[in-house]
């Protein structure tokens, strides 16, 4: 697992208070990890803070799974 | 009933320590006080539940904690104790819809407002948490408790500064009497021990500043040496229930709410009138609604915050209303031990009044060494007193000139 993936996983575990094993790449924040819409807003802010990236609202809406988050952040990092 | 406050968690422990004359006032731990003239407060002690301290992880899921200002967390803990103590757990929709919540706060999530204000000042408004507003809103204490327990009846909140706790309990009792609910979880919560809270009340010249080195002596209602109130934090929650409803399920009944009175001073934003007629009218209205006369009341839990003006004004109002019966009356200020819990004060003091009835004990006014003036009323200086107490009245007065009194009687 990439460094970014590890870090994303850690943030998800901390913010949503879920077990690490549940945070699989396919896991949906809302359907599988018990997040509500405010939790996802906060999660996206935590990603922005941790990775120094900016995630606009329209992009944030498309980030629904752990994998979506990792891919978006890695793309941003590659572009930077 | 449930309490979390400066003398720890749990009603019985808190009451025992109060009656024993222990003080809950100490040096402020949560931030650096060097720029502030008041450096002490009544803080909820950290520690395990078994020790009577607060470890949030024992009570609230970690993920939920960050969605609540501290006042909501304290309300949550007190409500959990109160609801468990009441044994009320409605199993059907009708029962849930007949159960409401009315937990107020004077100020709400002041420490989260302070934190958020810092972000805004630093040009980081976009970094505000989506949980900021629901952490700070006063009525979210009621909201969170209702969500946790599924109580779908009236969901309401009093916000009347330091009179909040009495208004919440009094209004909740009225909602039951009017048929809006069978059961109401009612009380107050406050957590304003942060730079904004201490600094703000210091600016209003309301806090004690002369006893920073001897915190336990700082709150001294009616004493000659008093110099302002000491801020406290905590929450008090009671479960009120329609009498027949409580009887039918065999509930433990501590006491009955028999009277409630309110008034406004229409005078000044922070000071009472010199003759205390606002408080006088609130007490008079409470006794009238109870259908009793002053001599039928054996104990008054005073607002008595330890401010130079307020204490004697309240004393005069009680003396005037009780007349000849004043010499048989006991009146103490438990703020001498807890500090002033602002919006939670009326709620925890209602609980003390109820326990005074249950145990026939008047809790003491600590540090009352030399009263600034004599009174026929026994102010229970320094040591608790065993007394026959069947009816107790509790006062709370707030900024804005808002006054409320509630009267309890021993369970029928």
UniProtKB/TrEMBL annotation, chain A:
<dbReference type="InterPro" id="IPR006162">
    <property type="entry name" value="Ppantetheine_attach_site"/>
</dbReference>
<dbReference type="InterPro" id="IPR003231">
    <property type="entry name" value="ACP"/>
</dbReference>
<dbReference type="GO" id="GO:0000036">
    <property type="term" value="F:acyl carrier activity"/>
</dbReference>
<dbReference type="InterPro" id="IPR009081">
    <property type="entry name" value="PP-bd_ACP"/>
</dbReference>
<dbReference type="GO" id="GO:0031177">
    <property type="term" value="F:phosphopantetheine binding"/>
</dbReference>
<feature type="domain" description="Carrier">
    <location>
        <begin position="2"/>
        <end position="77"/>
    </location>
</feature>
<dbReference type="GO" id="GO:0009245">
    <property type="term" value="P:lipid A biosynthetic process"/>
</dbReference>
<feature type="modified residue" description="O-(pantetheine 4'-phosphoryl)serine">
    <location>
        <position position="37"/>
    </location>
</feature>
<dbReference type="GO" id="GO:0036104">
    <property type="term" value="P:Kdo2-lipid A biosynthetic process"/>
</dbReference>
<keyword id="KW-0443">Lipid metabolism</keyword>
<comment type="pathway">
    <text>Glycolipid biosynthesis; KDO(2)-lipid A biosynthesis.</text>
</comment>
<keyword id="KW-0444">Lipid biosynthesis</keyword>
<dbReference type="InterPro" id="IPR020806">
    <property type="entry name" value="PKS_PP-bd"/>
</dbReference>
<keyword id="KW-0275">Fatty acid biosynthesis</keyword>
<protein>
    <recommendedName>
        <fullName>Acyl carrier protein</fullName>
    </recommendedName>
</protein>
<keyword id="KW-0597">Phosphoprotein</keyword>
<keyword id="KW-0963">Cytoplasm</keyword>
<dbReference type="Pfam" id="PF00550">
    <property type="entry name" value="PP-binding"/>
</dbReference>
<dbReference type="GO" id="GO:0005829">
    <property type="term" value="C:cytosol"/>
</dbReference>
<comment type="similarity">
    <text>Belongs to the acyl carrier protein (ACP) family.</text>
</comment>
<comment type="function">
    <text>Carrier of the growing fatty acid chain in fatty acid biosynthesis.</text>
</comment>
<dbReference type="GO" id="GO:0016020">
    <property type="term" value="C:membrane"/>
</dbReference>
<dbReference type="InterPro" id="IPR036736">
    <property type="entry name" value="ACP-like_sf"/>
</dbReference>
<dbReference type="GO" id="GO:0000035">
    <property type="term" value="F:acyl binding"/>
</dbReference>
<comment type="pathway">
    <text>Lipid metabolism; fatty acid biosynthesis.</text>
</comment>
<keyword id="KW-0276">Fatty acid metabolism</keyword>
<keyword id="KW-0596">Phosphopantetheine</keyword>
């Amino acid at each position: 697992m990439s460094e970014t993936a590890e870090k994303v996983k850690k943030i998800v575990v901390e913010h949503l208070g879920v077990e690490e094993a549940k945070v699989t790449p396919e896991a949906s924040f809302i359907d599988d990890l018990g997040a509500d819409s405010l939790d996802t807003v906060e999660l996206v802010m935590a990603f922005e803070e941790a990775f120094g990236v900016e995630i606009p609202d329209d992009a944030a809406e498309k980030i629904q799974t752990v994998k979506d988050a990792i891919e978006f952040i890695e793309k941003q990092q590659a572009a930077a | 009933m449930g309490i979390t406050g400066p003398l720890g968690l749990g009603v019985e422990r808190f009451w025992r320590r109060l009656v024993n004359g222990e003080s809950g006032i100490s040096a402020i731990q949560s931030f650096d006080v060097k720029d502030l003239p008041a450096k002490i407060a009544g803080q909820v002690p950290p520690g395990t539940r078994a020790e009577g301290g607060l470890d949030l992880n024992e009570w609230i899921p970690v993920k939920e904690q960050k969605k609540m200002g501290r006042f909501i967390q304290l309300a949550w803990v007190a409500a959990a104790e109160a609801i468990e103590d009441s044994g009320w757990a409605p199993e059907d929709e009708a029962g849930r819809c007949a159960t409401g919540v009315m937990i107020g706060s004077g100020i709400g999530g002041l420490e989260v407002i302070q934190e958020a204000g810092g972000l805004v000042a630093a040009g980081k408004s976009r970094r505000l948490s989506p949980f900021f507003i629901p952490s700070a809103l006063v009525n979210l204490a009621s909201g969170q408790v209702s969500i946790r327990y599924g109580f779908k009846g009236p969901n309401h909140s009093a916000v009347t500064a330091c009179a909040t706790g009495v208004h919440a309990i009094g209004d909740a009792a009225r909602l039951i009497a009017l048929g809006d609910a069978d059961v109401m979880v009612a009380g107050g919560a406050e957590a304003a021990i942060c730079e904004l809270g201490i600094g703000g009340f210091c600016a209003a010249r309301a806090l004690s500043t002369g006893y920073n080195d001897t915190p336990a002596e700082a709150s001294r209602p009616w004493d000659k040496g008093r110099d302002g109130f000491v801020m406290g934090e905590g929450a008090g929650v009671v479960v009120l229930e329609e009498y027949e409803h409580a009887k039918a399920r065999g509930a433990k009944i501590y006491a009955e709410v028999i009277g409630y009175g309110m008034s406004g001073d229409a005078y000044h934003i922070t000071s009472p009138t010199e003759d205390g007629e606002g408080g006088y009218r609130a007490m008079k209205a409470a006794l009238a609604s109870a259908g009793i006369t002053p001599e039928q009341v054996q104990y008054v839990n005073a607002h008595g915050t330890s401010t130079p003006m307020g204490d004697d004004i309240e004393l005069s109002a009680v003396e005037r209303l009780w007349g000849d019966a004043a010499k048989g009356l006991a009146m103490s200020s438990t703020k001498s031990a807890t500090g002033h819990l602002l919006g939670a004060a009326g709620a925890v003091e209602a609980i003390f009044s109820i326990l005074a009835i249950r145990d026939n004990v008047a809790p003491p006014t600590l540090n009352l060494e030399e009263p600034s003036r004599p009174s026929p009323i026994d102010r229970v200086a320094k040591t608790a007193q065993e007394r026959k107490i069947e009816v107790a009245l509790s006062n709370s007065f707030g900024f804005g000139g808002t006054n409320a009194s509630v009267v309890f009687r021993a369970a029928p």
